[in-house]
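Thread title: Can someone regenerate the structure for this chain?

I was given the following input by a collaborator and told the matching structure tokens would be attached. They weren't. Posting the sequence so someone can regenerate them.
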Amino acid sequence: MQTQTIAEAKELLSFSLQIQVALRAAQERLPATDHDEERSWLAAAGRRIRACADEVEAALADAIALPEFESERQARARALFEAWVDAAEGLLIGLSTHASPQSPLIEVLFPHQKFDRARRGGATARAFLLEIEKRRHTAYIVRLSGEPEYAFLPPLLEQLDGAKQALERQEEPIQASDEELAALRGAVLARADTLRTALGRARLLAEAALLEHPGWLTDLGLDAKPRSKRPSRAPAPSES
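Best answer:
Regenerated them for you:
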């Protein structure tokens, strides 16, 4: 059976981690005396699965532009937005710690300090952060950040700038043709098929290694099969 969807590839990757744990448990359960060869079969099966799983994981990471990863992209964008809020609040805390809670820098940089509201997101929260970004580029802040007395300030500003830039990169429109998306999807599915083959071989090796111990295969979960997440039809490359 060939892998036909990204969801199947993800499930297969998750299943492979479960089988790796089961193979290690089987090695530990087999008595070392007179079972070195069988234990080596189980170890070899685990190494092969691990290598193939690493390739699937890398292909999935490379394929983040696919429509199937929209939820992951949105989750990452939310996390990066929160990191931007964290950096802004870190700037406020740094000013309070290194200068003073009454420092005029705080009044200059922060239109308000309602970070709990900012963490909820939305247009108001983004406007708040952009206002801080605007204020940090004023001549007054730029001049103070170059003075020895305010040596603590540039790293805080750099952290704020870096958080904003990371979010902007995440939110950039995906520039990939249907052909490029199809190639990314194909790479994931091909590596998943290789992993599926490795899992099949691992089961055969496990059956051979545990032949003298009826019931262990089921007890350890080595006879389990990955769940199928195959939809009624595969999504077209242009679907979102």
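Residues 73-171 form one domain.
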